[in-house]
Amino acid sequence: MHRLVVAVLLAWLGAGPAVAQGIRSAPPTEVASETDPRRFSEPHLAIHPADPKQLLAGVIISWVHGPFEETQTRQRCAAFVSRDGGGTWSRHEFALLNCGDPQVAILPDGQAVFIALADFPGVEPRRGDWLIVFHSSDAGMTWDPAPTIIGRGHDHPAVAVDLGSPTRKGWIYVTTHHVWRDGNNQLASGIFVARSRNGGKSFDTPAIISPNNLHNFGEMPAVLSDGTLIASFVDDSWGSTSLERRRTWVVRSTDGATTFTLPFLINDMCGPPPSFQLSALVADTSEGPFRDRLYFGCRQYAGGPVVVTASGDRGATWSGARVPVGSRVLDPTARRVMTMGVTSNGVVGVLIAERRTNSAERCLELSFSASFDGGATFGLPQLVSSSPCGNSSADEIANRLFPTYGDYFGIISLPDGNYRLLWPQMQAGRSVLLTTVITVDGRAIAPPR
User: Fold this and answer.
1) Is residue 81 within 8 Å of 140, Cβ to Cβ?
2) What is the rounded distance in angstroms from the CA atom of residue 129 to the CA atom of residue 279?
3) What total number of domains does the chain contain?
4) CATH code of residue 238
5) Does the N-terminal peptide bond of residue 37 adopt cis geometry, omega within 30 degrees of 0?
6) Predicted confidence (pLDDT) per residue in 186-234, tens digit
7) pLDDT per residue over 96-112, tens digit each?
8) 446 in any annotated domain
9) Which of 172, 170, 161 is nearest to 196 (CA)?
């Protein structure tokens, strides 16, 4: 189930002898649990920039019995708040129907937002792709009763906050994959970017970047130390025939999401097959040697491993080497998703959830890998948790609908240079939401030139 102490040996390129770095995983603690037929999935996690004891999580509570329409209507979202650094948690369930893709953020002044896609009672037409934002003035302890409803036709919202630039500190950016019909009644898509300058109470007129006639999937945003916004997307063909390899891109804005550059190509290494999975983008905003370096991760095409590439020039160019992360022995049919983070010491971490199809005892595995050299190498994966997927009818339904319990998981950097993780799994017949701290002994070190 769990390994307490692990030594990770990383061979530094051009740096002489290997340097030992330690990664220690604390025993996981339970945040909350659900019993049949409810399941947790896709948790997201945020930390108060000025008070590391204050944590905020958002999570889907899925329903796995009944017809599809019924299970969607019953799907809810909840927020969990901890004021003691993850020891205890309080819960708030939102009055949203068909709720999914929750995202949370806490601003330096203590305001917070909960973002999701949902059907909100009283808003027509009734559909589950309305982009909805709840605001909190006290880091998620209480929430304003009426949300801001930005619009419909959205998928996969993601949030990034400017935490330190001189002129835009506290600004919130929400990106989505947005689809609409153009003047010829043809489907079009683009990266939707909504900006809030007042803590999430309201949002300015959004920007929509539609660079081509392909199906452009908005993915993850990141904000650099000077306030530059980076937004990623993946393109694919429309219809049932996918491109053999999906191309991944970023666009950049230096004026607070008012204007954007033309797209910069990252690579064409992402899947399918298997079916579509989200990529990950993260920025190093530490004071370390790789400050403002960008890291992009995705599942490689044809059932390959998770691969990571990096950019040291704000996304304009990306390293040619795609560094594989995770298990060296791959099941090409396994579902494999990842979440990335960077510690305050500049160490890049990748959390990988892998659903194996041929193992009853370790059906779902979570592993963690770290890079201390700016993404040039990653240590061997260390097992964080494993669990069986179960054999009841409800488990079979849940495993089919949520094979890895979602496309992303909670990961935050703590001020002491460590990580906190948040994930769901099945345990003794219950769906549990678990958290742990990954202690990282070491900091990022740039190889000598």
Assistant:
1) yes
2) 21
3) 1
4) 2.120.10.10
5) yes
6) 889 999 999 999 999 999 999 999 999 889 999 999 999 999 999 999 9
7) 999 999 999 999 999 99
8) no
9) 172
